[in-house]
Each structure stands twice: as structure tokens, then as C-alpha cells.
Amino acid sequence: MTGYDPDSVKCVVWDLDGTLWDDIAVETPTDELPTPRPEMLAAIDALAARGVLSSIASRSAPTVLDRLAGRPEVRERFLAPQVSWQDKSESLRRIAKDLGIAVEALVLVDDSPYERAEVEALLPGVRTLAPEDVPALLAAFEGREVTPESRERVRRYRTEETRRAEGERFSGSREEFLRWCDMRLTIGAAAPDEIPRALELAARTHRLNSSGLTPDRLRELAASEGHALYTARMADRFGSYGVIGAALVDRTDPAAWSVPLLALSCRVAGRGAAAAFLFRLMRRAREAGADTFRVTLRPTDANLEMRILLRQAGLRRADDTPGTAPAITPNAAVLVRSLRGDGDLPEPPPYLHVTEQDHREDAEA
User: Fold this and answer.
1) Residues 6+ away with beta carbon under 8 Å from 341
2) What does the DSSP assignment read for 207-256?
3) Given CB 3.0 to 4.6 Å as the disulfide criterion, which of 145, 149, 306, 308 pairs with 242?
4) Quick one: residue 289, left, alpha or beta (phi over 0 = left, psi -120 to 50 = alpha)?
5) What is residue 15's three-state secondary structure?
6) Mind listing the pLDDT tens digit for each residue in 146-174?
7) What is the Cα–Cα distance from 133 to 113, expressed in whole angstroms?
8) For the purposes of burial, counting CB atoms within 10 Å of the CB of 229, is it exposed (0-12), middle (13-18) or buried (19 or more)?
9) pTM value?
10) pLDDT tens per residue across span 75-101
């Protein structure tokens, strides 16, 4: 794992035969599954404690997964498992889709050189490891700060499986289902205990990340004069999502609020949270007297959703606009829109209840 950034790992996908356990499940003389290797279960639990999910990709009979359901102490460790005769690369694509994460955020642990080679050839962004490499994988996470959201991540993704199942059973439209979920978003200045989570979002989010500002740079800017760090928390009838969004706002020019970073968890993609967070920041800027709103954007292959959102919010490139400060992030541009006038700012989706914490930090700025 030398030179490997653990912030890019969101899920470790485990092979079964020869990896999670020694034997071949379909060749056991009874319906009893092979006994998992204790060191593998310990590794899965250690990763979960650091906010890393685990899944399964096994080329075997689908009935093996049915039998695994009879071992809940093992089965509950895995999300979106895939057990079939399909190629491992296809299983990894399905896992990434089910979890709502980029396939490049997966790591495959497999004892078969052939299976690892197949994945490396078809999914070159996926890191593959042999079982003997697992201690090095764990070592890559040593000494890293673990936020409350990280410790709760596996449970929250399991809750997400419940949401998805309910959504599939729901007879109404998608918007009606989201309204039924009773989603609530709370926006306000970051509390001290939320700052580590904001740094984590800057490092680990890709789909809904405007600039890719590094955690160190974010921490530095957030502590500087005229800057404020905002967070967004979300909950619904199924439970709390925790802190799902962070935004750094530069208010050194009272007439023009600038956002060097807007980042949200991929778990809330498609639910209006990113739009609601952005729109309320724009409204708060207008209420504070600003007539211009700016966002730093560094386009990537992953953040198309963010780019579409910024365009829908009326933000346009301002590279050649006189008086517009250059982006502080390499390979980024500044997008800008006017806040002048009344009633023309976009509103959050009607199915999302948005509340704001007190504006004391605005008065103090």
C-alpha cells in the first residue's frame, strides 16, 4: 500500500473461497459454509471502525449467498454483496452502483491472480490486493483521525439499504417518496466538533465536490480572518445521516461572498440536499448585503453532478470578469452570479424541510 491514499478507499470487496475462508463453499458436503478466517473478520471489523465498508464479490453459485444469510454474524458485515458466475469486474460495478460510490473507491481482496488481473484490466482505477496484503492495507489507516460519522458509516449505509428497499416498494412517484421520507436539512456555522467531519468530506467526496480543496488548506483557510465554515446535517424518518455537507465561505469582501469549497456526501446525491445547501448559502449572502456570489469549480470526471447544479443555480465562468479574484485551487475556475434583485434566487426542493441555525456568526464577521 506504499504511496496509497486511504482517503480514496470507501469499500473493500472480499472474495470468498480462498480469501474469506479456506475451502470452496460449493464443494462442502453439507449446507454448512466454511469457517471464515478470524484474521479476515478482524480486518473487516477494523476497517468498519475507520468508516470503510465491506462487500463481497465471489464467482460462485448464488445459493452461497442464501446460505450466508443463515450466518447473520458474518452476513451483517457486508453491504451489497455479489455472488454469481459473472466476471468480478461486473460485480464491482454493481457494488459501486448499489452503494452510490465511484468504482475507483473500491479495493478488491482476492487470492486469484487471474481475478485480480481481470479487474485491473477492465477497471484500472480499482486497486487489487492478495490476502497477504491485508495487514499493509490496515497499516495505511493507522494514526488517521476517525470522526463520529466514520464510526457510524456502516450502520448508515445499512439504513440506506432499508431506504432503497422502501423506495422500491413505494407505489407513488420519486418526489412523493422523498416527501414521505420527511427529510430535514439543518444548515449553520460549523461547531468545533464538526470540523474533522468537514475535513473528511473535503478529502473523501468526489461526485459532489466543487474544487477538491485539500483538508490542510481547508483547515488553514477556515481559521483565517473573514472566512467561515458551514455544515449541513440531514435526517429523515429512517434516522440521521449526520453531517453530510461542508462549505467554506470567504467573506473578506462583504459585497462578494466566495465559496472555495462546497462538498457533500455521495449518500445524499439525488435528494436535493446539495441544491438546498447551495441555495440557502446564496440567500444568506444576499441577506448579509452581498450582491455577488462566487464558487470555485475544478471540473473532474467525477463531479458532473456538481457542475450541473452550479449551472442550474445560475453560476457562470468569470475568468475574464474584471475584479474577480483567481481561483485558489489549481486547474480551477471561478463561477459567479449576481444576487441583485428580489425573489429571483432558486428555492430548495419542496419535499426537503430546511432550517438554519442562528446567524450569530454573520453578525460577528
Assistant:
1) none
2) TTBSS---HHHHHHHHTSTTEEEEEEEEEETTEEEEEEEEEEEE-SSTTE
3) 149
4) left
5) coil
6) 888 888 888 888 898 899 899 999 999 99
7) 13
8) buried
9) 0.79
10) 999 999 999 999 999 999 999 999 988
The CB-based long-range contact list for 319-324 (8 Å cut-off, 24+ gap) reads 324/294
The CB-based long-range contact list for 216-223 (8 Å cut-off, 24+ gap) reads: 217/328, 218/248, 218/261, 219/195, 221/248, 221/250, 221/260, 221/328, 222/190, 222/195, 222/198, 222/248
Backbone Cα Rg of the chain? 22
CA distance 233 to 311: 24
What CA–CA distance (Å, rounded) separates 262 from 275? 11
Pairing of strands 53-59, 82-84: parallel
How big is the chain, counted in residues?
365
Collapsed DSSP state (helix, strand, coil) of residue 123: coil
The angle that helices 195-204 and 215-222 make with each other, rounded to 10 degrees, is 140
Model confidence at 69: pLDDT above 70: yes
Cα–Cα distance between 237 and 112 in angstroms, integer? 43
DSSP string, 138-180: HHTTTT----HHHHHHHHHHHHHHHHHHHHHH--S-HHHHHHH
